[in-house]
Amino acid sequence: MGQDQTKQQIEKGLQLYQSNQTEKALEVWMKVLEKSSDLVGRFRVLGCLVTAHSEMGRYKEMLKFAVVQIDTARELEDADFLLESYLNLARSNEKLCEFHKTISYCKTCLGLPGTRAGAQLGGQVSLSMGNAFLGLSVFQKALESFEKALRYAHNNDDAMLECRVCCSLGSFYAQVKDYEKALFFPCKAAELVNDYGKGWSLKYRAMSQYHMAVAYRLLGHLGSAMECCEALDAIERAQDLAEEVGNKLSQLKLHCLSESIYRSKGLQRELRAHVVRFHECVEETELYCGLCGESIGEKNSRLQALPCSHIFHLRCLQNNGTRSCPNCRRSSMKPGFV
Q: Which residues pair with 304 in a beta bridge?
């Protein structure tokens, strides 16, 4: 696989990933990794795999691909690629709570010669280091790292980085029991999402709302905290019950409802999981309207089960005008059934 074909396949994977077809995207990227001879392409696809596994919570897989990316960067002998790969390695260890390793890899990033990527990634390195120091309860160094990351964000007009730093500062001040600041910084992050977040990943809204909920709870404002999570908790309990009793239609409705809530709250990984489960439920039950072809349960539409056990949208049967089942053609429809 040459350079142009590699680039096309990486783009194809990105399109699949952005449309929530995560597993198909991973398949495309893995084939690129197996067949491509283009080192730059391999490096880029490894970065995609690191990000995807991070968002799915598969941190051991994330680390595995970050290690391979380091080796690829060394083959390329490019300082920019090396900086990016060490940052991914630091992030992987941060997710796995290997905080000492995270700090070590961050220091390696900061010790690399100045590169064009340094100005862009330096703030992210400082943020990852701050999160690691916070995980170790080394509060002074954590705060210094967060403030450094914030300066990078301001100097480079990087609103996404500023949003992430504000969320980490919210967690920092919650741990040192300054609850007013623990609320202030996530609120600032929420403002950034509202101002700039139209094209952002939904996870940024989720981060700000989560840290706001934590701060509200610590301040004793339980009503405000509950607004962030009460609906999801109730739906998750309902989903458990629907699965226990085997009610597929209820599962479909709940997955659809969860999808809309997670989309609004920015919980990207959970959103994708519910999209996948919804379509799996549709396939398992073969619940499609035999007239319009749309899946049953995705929209709040009235259904009609005929005596022959076939199910259709009520509006479709009313518009069809026939007295027999559109599927099996049995004349089993009772007078006034529709």
A: 312
- Among candidate residues 245, 284, 242, 246, the one with its CA nearest the CA of residue 257: 242
| DSSP label at residue 294 | P
Q: Tell me the whole-structure pTM to 2 decimals.
A: 0.65
3-state secondary structure of 307: coil
313 strand-pairing partners: 303
The identity of residue 101, as a single letter, is K
Read off the tokens for 311.
Answer: 């199910």
Q: Is the pLDDT of residue 282 over 80?
A: no
Task: Give 275's pLDDT tier (boundaries 50, 70, 90).
Answer: confident
Phi first, then psi, for residue 331 (nearest 5°) are -85, 65
Integer Cα distance of 187 and 203 in angstroms? 15
The two three-digit tokens of residue 315, written as one number: 């509006």
pLDDT per residue over 213-238, tens digit each?
888 888 888 777 767 665 555 556 66
Q: Identify residue 250 by its one-letter amino acid code.
A: S
Q: At what angle do helices 39-55 and 59-76 cross, to 10 degrees?
A: 160
C-alpha distance from residue 180 to each of 62, 176, 215 (Å) = 35, 11, 8
Q: How far apart, in Å, are the Cα atoms of 124 and each of 103, 115, 131, 246, 253? A: 13, 15, 11, 46, 40
- What is the tally of helices (H) and strands (E) in the chain? 15, 2
In angstroms, the CA 8 to CA 117 distance is 24
Closest by CA position to 70, among listed 97, 96, 109: 109
